[in-house]
Amino acid sequence: MLEVTGLNAYYGTAHVLQDVSLTLGAEPVALIGRNGMGKSTLCKALSGVLGPGNRVTGSVRLEGEELGGKPAHRIAKAGIGYVPQGRRLFQSLTVDEHLLIVGARRDDAWTPERVYELFPRLAERKHVSGTSLSGGEQEMLSIGRALLTNPKVLVMDEPSEGLAPTVVETLIETIKDLAAAGMGLLVVEQNLGVATSLAERVVVMVSGSVATETTSQDLLSDPEQQKRFLGVEPLAEAA
Ligand SMILES: Nc1ncnc2c1ncn2[C@@H]1O[C@H](COP(=O)(O)OP(=O)(O)OP(=O)(O)O)[C@@H](O)[C@H]1O
Q1: Number of folded domains in the chain?
Q2: CA of 124 to the centre of ligand 1 (A)
Q3: Range(s) of the domain holding residue 215
């Protein structure tokens, strides 16, 4: 579905993403790595939102269509949906307005009505400002906004960050349902429990490159891997 080859990203002259290659099929992929290894930069480079003055080179092919270095609106239209770290909502827009400005058509697969069916809580909060929502509601809105671009692949940057465990559980189920319905999923997660619940394939980034690939099963059963790849104390010891 998604084929990334030799992708590089530069913030000004800083060469942050270095020759990243990665393929994504129907199976969800979790992207892990210590802080500052380039996970968010990869999400931004794939989505075309690196910002002015910054540069992306290399190939990003979605079902054969070349999107590398293309502007964000082209990439979104082609089918890469982006759910940014920190949710990035507007204080001045209500929930409903966040969904309406995406400009989905009534005959699109995803409409604001369908987003409200997926997240009934958002329907109850339609007229509330985006930044007045709880963390979990903000994540729902950020996902809903991305779904309105009718993505073939969803790129999610730390969806569970700052959320209570019960909220995270519900969120995991929703994301799994989307993936089971055929949406490609690349998810950055620092939370090992969330990463391994969402994906069996786990790609590890070190210093702006893909260092290795492992599986959730191996990662969960190997505290040394957890320490090496995430720089955190293993799950069992942290509990
Ligand atoms: N806008 C920017 N301008 C310059 N350098 C940046 C910018 N954003 C990130 N960087 C640098 O790029 C490198 C990769 O950062 P990135 O945020 O992609 O890492 P990350 O793996 O997502 O880390 P984290 O888990 O802390 O978000 C870091 O050295 C960071 O300081």
Answers
A1: 1
A2: 36
A3: 2-238
Q: In this prediction, does ipTM exceed 0.85?
A: yes
| Ligand 1, atom 18: closest residue by C-alpha | 38
What's at 133, amino acid-wise? L
CATH code of the domain containing 115: 3.40.50.300
Ligand 1 center from residue 33 Cα (angstroms): 12
Mutation to probe ligand 1, out of 17, 41, 50, 230 (largest number of atoms < 8 A from CB): 41
Task: Indicate if ligand 1 lies below 6 Å from the C-beta of 41.
Answer: yes
pLDDT band at 232 (very low <50, low <70, confident <90, very high): low
Q: Which of 8, 13, 16 for mutating ligand 1's site (highest number of atoms within 8 Å of CB)?
A: 16
pLDDT in tens, 137-189: 999 999 999 999 999 999 999 999 999 999 999 999 999 999 999 999 999 99
- Identify the residue whose tokens are 């509330």: 128
User: 141: CA distance to ligand 1 center in Å?
Assistant: 24
Q: Which atom of ligand 1 is nearest to the CA of 37?
A: 21
pLDDT: is 235 or 84 the higher one? 84
